[in-house]
Every structure is written in structure tokens, then in C-alpha cells.
Design goal:
About 45% of the residues lie in helices and about 15% in strands. It is α+β, with helices and mostly antiparallel strands. A hairpin with a 2-residue loop joins strand 2 (about 35-40) and strand 3 (about 45-50). Helix 7 (about 205-215) packs across helix 9. The longest helix is centred in the C-terminal third of the chain and has 24 residues, at about 240-260. It is globular, with a radius of gyration of 18 Å.
Length: about 270
Amino acid sequence: MKPHSNEFYYSAIKNTFPNSWNIRTPAIPGGVCPVFLCDTPTGTKVCRFSDHEIVFRNRYVSELLALNDIPAPQTTVHAYFDCRFETYDYCPTPTLYEQIQSGMINTDVFEAYKHIIEIQRRISEIPCEHFKPHKCRYMYEIFTANQKMRVHPMLARIYGAVHRLFSDGGDIRVLHNDLYDKNILVNAQAKVDRIIDLDAVALCNESFSVMLTLRTYPLGNNLEYMEYYEDTMGRKINRSAIINGLKILNAIRKPQVALNRLLWHGYNTPPGR
């Protein structure tokens, strides 16, 4: 995606929503792409700018999730000169990250993750042959495409090759592969109102997907999480591979973050995860 100034993005939003006001960035900015909120006469909208092929891909994903009663955004595609962006209705429910920062107790945090595992089970029941976006069907493909919007293309290709090595094989399913606490909207009853980041819905090795979740999991009961996951799914995951993979990720985390910062060219500040 060609980068633009904030003034360009504001103009694109005003072109789509002429009567909008209070265009702003959200409290938790997008991890890859420019994301804005705007108020309109019909409610607050989320506007997310991305590569045009990913924008159309995500519309397909949103329609597929809606057909399967998965609580996710329903996106619409818009164009403004050479850019494409997706919009959807803003959900005021806080992210799990915000709930944790506000003092949500650990038992409720785990209850929220139990609910997200139940939603993940419903996603995983979508037959692989029914998941046919025109672009980025596999998680390593969407991962590489997004990395190219963040870091130097050569580094993005290296990351993508490593991701493919572990994610493209074994027990492949349709899954949400970034169940990060900032991508989960959770109400006061520790129930999930919505999952966001449609980029992360793709075909992926299930054990690798679980490892990606546990990489940023805020609690210390990884074994209990995996036990609940297996009980809910009704199938086993490769626990030893997940545990060893997490050890490797933890060992390389600091040099990887430093390398990302050195070669960063994304819209937002380099993430620390």
C-alpha cells in the first residue's frame, strides 16, 4: 500500500461520509495499517486503510463469518483515488486489553478466553474447501503481505518463509490466528462481543495458531488453557511443539524487536511484541 498523509486519509473519509465529524485515531491504533474513527449521523464508523487486495479479501472473510454466525465486523469497501479502505460500524465494547488495564480479575480474563476458544471452534468448523478468498488464503501469505507494510521487503520475505515452515502443514484449519487481547472486545460479564482483525482469519496449522495466541496470553496458566482448548475442540494439539516454540520465541524476542525497529517503515510506531 502506498503511504499517504493523514490529510489524505481525512479527505478519503470525508468523501465517503460527507456529513462526518470528529475524525480521529482510536485509543488503540492499528498494528499494521492506518485506522481512524469518525462520527456520522448513523453512528461511529471505523475506517481502515490497507492494500486493496487485502481490503477485498477481508470483505469476503466478513461475509463468510456472518454466514457462520461469528461475531466479527461486517465490512464495506470504498475507494479514493489510488487507495482502498474498509469501513464497519464501531463497537463501543472495550478490548480485553482495556478491561485488564481497568482491573479485570484473572478468573474473568480466563473466562473471556474460554469464550473466545468456543468462538474459535465455530470458526474451525468452516470447511477448508469453503474458505476461498481471492488473495491470501493461508496465514503465512497474509502475514507476509502485512509485514511488507511494516518492515523492509527482504526482512518481510524472511519472516514469511519462517512462518510458512511452521504454519503450512499438519492439521490445517480455518482459524483466527491473532487472538491478541487488543483484538478481542469483551463486555463486563467477560463475554466476547466481537473479534476484530479479519486479516488474521486464514488457513493455518492449529498447534501453531495456538502458539501464536499463547505468545501474548496475559495469564500464566498455559497448560490449563491448552486443556480447555482440547476439551472444547474435541481434538488434541501438539503441546510439546507449542511449549518449545514459545521458548524459542521468547529467546529471540529482544533481537527481533530491535531488528524490526531498525528496518521499520510502517505507519504506526513499531510494536513491542
